[in-house]
Amino acid sequence: MTRTDAREIAVRLLYSLAVTGQEPEALLDAFFGDGHFETLGGEDELFARCPDKKQMAYIRSLVTLCAEHRETLDDYIKKYSKGWKPERISKTAAAVLRCALCEILYLEDVPDSAAINEAVELAKRYDEQDTVAFINGVLGGFMRGEKGNAAVPEGAEPVPPEAEALQENE
Fold it and tell me: pTM score, two decimals?
């Protein structure tokens, strides 16, 4: 299993937290305990291989940190969601954004550009193009506003003009 796969599992678990309101530890224990994870392999290739110790620690850390810092992460999302009302942000997009911001803010071994690129790629699998552009725009705005980077990290896609217009018109 790659870190990309582990990140995607974490995003799915973050989505579950938002939907169910469960405590992170209870959700993680139920998801990975009692053979539950192994039963998912036939349904989705993402679950074909169990995470090793390092990947499991990464997933648990990411889910736990996102839950512990959810208010801070959501404040950043609101701050950089230019023209998007909070209720318009899907639970999937919010999970992707929380994951990326958490990696940028709290996980030193994840390069900022990797967190952003991975978030954009994940969003492409789960959301429409305007939401993908929105996610990229929020993360780029965060980098410029909070990290002092004048540009979006290398490799991240620029926000297309039509997405900026969508954001401004919301």
Answer: 0.83
